[in-house]
Design a protein that fits this description.
With about 475 residues, this protein is of the alpha/beta class. It folds into two domains: about 260 residues, Aldehyde Dehydrogenase, Chain A, domain 1 (3-Layer(aba) Sandwich), CATH 3.40.605; about 190 residues, 3-Layer(aba) Sandwich (Aldehyde Dehydrogenase, Chain A, domain 2), CATH 3.40.309. It is about 40% helix and about 20% strand. It contains 16 helices and 20 strands. Helix 15 links the parallel strand 17 and strand 18. The radius of gyration is 22 Å and the shape is globular. The chain starts with 5 loop residues before the first strand and ends with a strand.
Length: about 475
């Protein structure tokens, strides 16, 4: 596949820029491709194409949009192995994990959105007025590197299904998967301009899209710091925004909990994407008098997670995405030791000559005021925080600027009581499993708006009342 072009107005075109961005395999530091570093002329062309396409796409029958999206889903299933293989190469995820967690579930997301769209009431007679839900316009989708397909499909599929047109700006670190997606969209035959792919940096292409007068919606996933900048710029023109941002999520083990279950579900979120998941349960809150027992379970389970080359199966923990991320995570580990947290598993990583590998690290006796307990590390680092009683556990869980996810393990009624008091957008209780029919998003500085389910559809709709 040719990665040196952009996909605009239904065709692959050369960028007006002569510059390219190299894409690196984090497992071995080899360059695996290069994509255009698009400029203002490219962005203007993409926005113009999307705006013109919206004039007709918004009035296309829902059945037509659904048929095209169903064809796209079929095409993505056919290319699932290719997508997963690319995720192994550009993100450094293990083969099985790339297919089973990064690819298939997010194609299934698309199927779920289609089911919702088929049943959704876009127009409803309210008696003395008609309530209509209408597409908004041109959507700029700015996506991160940690889920190269999933963070994209959660945005573009509901946006396009509801009659909006899209300009996708993927992360410059993992853009190659989106070329497979764009090629599938092209093959299916979506009208020209409905979907556009523009690669480049966030500072340049992202900023141009956010501030463009003809972009109506900005949907962004990334750090809270960048999300604030996106919001400030977008709100100057009162654009609709959806922000899915950072987290420092708590996992609370109550007395009487199934400790094996609690630890396994917690560690899966911290290790399976090498800690590079915004909803990872990186703060493990444990009863003070059960700390030693839980530490032993954590260490023993941590040893069982396969670590190493993502091209080999099974591998749960591979490299982090880049040199920058390696050095960032390393500095947090050093900071934890400096602050007095007790290192019970792992070590400070030494070098990255052959890849950006960081083995799991577990700290115990962490104070919630320590930097490692307050800031999002985005690496395979777990903080065990002891608490004296249930009230203190709730206070510690909520003592954070974030509110994306949480988990509570213990007797069902008590766990539900605690879950109700935690300020987070998603809370797992005991054996509960996140369903893609549910909304995903955070409280506080973890974001604005929701993705997933009906809420994910409604983020791309305007509400109109027509009085009879």
């Amino acid at each position: 596949m040719d990665y040196t072009k952009l996909y605009i107005n239904g065709e692959w075109v050369q960028s007006n820029s002569k510059e390219f961005i190299e894409v690196e395999n984090p497992a071995n530091r080899e360059i695996i491709g290069k994509v255009p570093r698009a400029n203002k002329a490219d962005v203007d062309y993409a926005v113009k194409s999307a705006k013109e396409a919206f004039e007709t796409w918004q009035y296309t029958d829902l059945s037509t949009r659904i048929s095209l999206m169903e064809a796209l889903i079929d095409e993505l299933y056919k290319r699932a192995d290719d997508i997963a293989y690319m995720i192994v190469k550009e993100l450094g995820r293990g083969v099985d994990f790339a297919l089973d967690m990064h690819t298939i579930p997010y194609i299934q997301d698309g199927e779920n959105y289609i089911r919702i769209a088929k049943e959704y009431e876009f127009e409803k007679d309210m008696g003395d007025y008609i309530l209509r839900k209408e597409p908004i316009g041109v959507v700029a989708a700015l996506t991160p590197w940690n889920y190269p397909l999933g963070q994209v499909t959660k945005k573009i599929i509901p946006a396009m299904l509801t009659g909006n047109t899209v300009i996708l700006k993927p992360s410059q670190q993992t853009p190659l998967v989106t070329y497979i997606l764009a090629d599938a969209i092209d093959k299916v035959g979506f009208p020209k301009g409905v979907f556009n792919l523009v690669t480049g940096t966030g500072a340049e292409v992202g900023s141009l899209l956010i501030e463009h007068e003809d972009v109506d919606v900005v949907t962004f996933t990334g750090s809270t710091k960048t999300g604030k900048e996106v919001a400030q710029r977008a709100m100057k023109a009162l654009k609709r925004i959806t922000l899915e941002l950072g987290g420092k999520s708590p996992s609370v083990i109550l007395k009487g909990a199934d400790i094996e279950l609690a630890v396994k579900k917690t560690l899966d979120t911290v290790y399976n994407n090498t800690g590079q998941t915004c909803s990872a349960l990186t703060r493990l809150l444990v009863p003070e008098d059960e700390k030693g027992k839980i530490e032993e379970v954590v260490v023993n389970m941590t040893k069982e997670y396969p670590f190493g080359d993502p091209a080999l199966s099974p591998t749960n923990i591979g490299p982090v995405i880049s040199e920058k991320q390696f050095l960032k995570v390393k500095s947090y580990i050093e900071k934890g030791i400096e602050e007095g947290a007790r290192l019970i598993y792992g070590e400070v990583p030494k070098d990255y000559d052959k890849g950006y590998y960081i083995k799991p690290v577990v700290f115990s006796d962490v104070d919630n005021n320590m930097v490692i307990a307050r800031e999002e590390i985005f690496g395979p680092v777990l903080c065990i925080i002891p608490y004296k009683d249930k009230e203190e556990a709730i206070r510690i869980a909520n003592d954070t600027e974030y509110g994306l996810s949480a988990a509570v393990f213990g007797p069902d009624d008590e766990a539900r009581e605690v879950a109700n008091k935690i300020k987070a957008g998603n809370v797992i209780v005991n054996k509960g499993i996140f369903t893609r029919k549910a909304p995903f998003g955070g409280f506080k500085q973890s974001g604005i708006g929701r993705e997933g389910g009906v809420f994910g559809i409604e983020e791309f709709l305007e509400v109109k009342a027509i009085f009879k």
